[in-house]
Design brief:
By secondary structure, this protein is mostly helical. 56% of the residues lie in helices and 0% in strands.
């Protein structure tokens, strides 16, 4: 039996350093806004309303993310087309400010998706860490980086 079974199964802790710092900043600011708005840190961790399942709560947060994404894409499309209510500058179109928090919509997208994932993981419906499932599929057949090199050579 391997000495570190978790490592042998590819279950090392995720390398958060691979996450984009700007995205983490936007995500954190949206949570900071939520803490301010609801006067409670981790407000999303509260119990579900009576009769509402974890899947239904996750769907609410997924829908919120979709609304924020729709706002972003609408602003960008309007800018590109020069349409009605188009932003004057590309950075205005790309930032798509949220009307309540005055933050760019991007942080709200990340927060909403993150909360949906946390709700589902806390309910035991998905793993809190999905691990590295690709390793089992590719390590026997390919060397690290081999797949991207094949794509670049096409």
């Amino acid at each position: 039996m391997p000495r570190d079974l978790k490592a042998a199964l590819g279950g090392k802790k995720p390398l958060l350093a691979f996450c984009a710092p700007a995205a983490l900043n936007h995500w954190a600011r949206a949570h900071q806004w939520g803490n301010f708005k609801y006067l409670q840190a981790g407000n999303y961790l509260r119990e579900n309303p009576e009769g509402v399942t974890d899947l239904e709560m996750a769907l609410e947060y997924i829908s919120a993310a979709q609304r924020h994404l729709a706002h972003i894409s609408d602003n960008i499309v309007r800018y590109m087309a020069g349409g009605l209510r188009a932003a004057a500058l590309p950075e205005i179109a790309a930032s798509s400010e949220d009307a309540e928090s005055h933050l760019p919509q991007w942080g709200h997208v990340l927060a909403s998706v993150g909360i949906a994932i946390q709700k589902l993981a806390d309910a035991g419906l998905i793993p809190a860490d999905p691990g590295t499932p690709w390793i089992h599929f590719y390590e026997e057949q390919h060397q690290p980086g081999e797949l991207i090199l094949k794509e670049k050579s096409k």
